[in-house]
Amino acid sequence: MGNGRAYGRTEHDMTGKKQLKERIRARMAATGERYLTARRHVVTDQPAPTVDHGWTLRGGVHPESANLANVLAHHRVRHDGAPLSEAMLFGIGGGLGAGYILWEFAAHRTCWVTLGFRNRWQYQTWTPDTLARIGIPAEVHRTAGARGAAAALDAALDAGRPAIVLPDRQLVGYWHLPAHHDGHGGHPVVAYARTGGGIRVDDRNLRPLTVDRADLDRARARVVSYKNLLIEARPAAGLELDGATVRGAVVAGLADCAAHLSAPSTSFSLPAWRKWSRLMTDGRNAKGWPKVFADGAGLTGALLSVWEAVSPAGITGGNLRGLYATFLREAAGLLDSPELVEAAEAFDAAAGAWHEVAEAALPASVPAFARMRELTAELGGAVVADGDAGRDTAAAAAAGLAGLSREYAEVPPLDSAGIADLFAATGRALAEAYALEVAAVGKLAAAVAPPPR
């Protein structure tokens, strides 16, 4: 009887957890929210952080800013007695960017959209530059040799120092991406401990996540432009940051973002969104979507990549406008600047507009697209919420996603009229996002402008 009662409680707990995860992932698919955000809407109690090998898994939104927040918290770096938030570090690093590239891979007849939502998204200097802005030294290690790269990682971990590394996303394994994504690049993660033949990594996951050491070494060496990059923050343990230093870093980050997004570049600033909105319906431009996707081949993959890039539920944290609005509110209190609250509200509106872009690009009213959104949420939810324990669920979701992508690779699940309507709706949503961001940047620039003499 005792065993039966214990089993009954365990079975009930497991069923309840499964149902909770299903509800959270359903919300992620519907709204594009990240796992923890969706969870807060579904249930009020929140899980206690997991501590693994002395490292606390705190989660996060954006890879670079989450890495820094978690690494500095691990070193017990404080400002005004508390850790720097991810949003604060994101803003100090310059905040937002803009950029759009449509990649066409003839060998696989696939297309993929890359969107740059972080300031200077096309460079790998954000982390050391942001550390320098708050006066924290960093050691950056680069080598072409696998032996030297492995030795540098071992030295950091043996000394108890977490290391930020930049592996290829397909080769690192746990995202279960198709083979043709090999070499497409990735985002930085924190390596914090060795365990058996693996390395524990923090990719904003909430439970331990292990990568086979050989896989990690190979993934780190895959992309030539940042081959074997390793970054170590080297603050004094328990450092209390000087208030003037943090305020100066915030002011510099605000000015950096305002200047960056006010630039005229159609590749690396806000005009990129206007250009993309026009390309959605331009049938004459070689890069116009009606021309690129005249026969429908590759369109489904391109639309899925837009959903994943724009939505926080995707791998890289989404459009980041909400994260920046959070920074602006924190900065408003720190600098006693109510104008920054107005700018925050404007960027919240921009975040809402980007949600509409994602909805227009991969509408849930199309059953195949709705299923793709569900599988994307299952994959991301399994990696984030369960780590190693979610590997089978993640693999199954990725396999389902790959199957649907193959099924609709040549002919999308829309007729020609539906495709034209989708292009027009996405173009309109992009134009609205662009207009709201221009207005938001105007408010930001006015807030950070020096007072007239």
UniProtKB/TrEMBL annotation:
Pfam families, per the entry: BtrH_N, DUF4872
Occurrences of domain Butirosin biosynthesis protein H N-terminal (ranges): 62-203
Chain ranges of the DUF4872 domain: 247-367
Classification via InterPro entries: BtrH_N, DUF4872
Protein name according to UniProt: BtrH N-terminal domain-containing protein
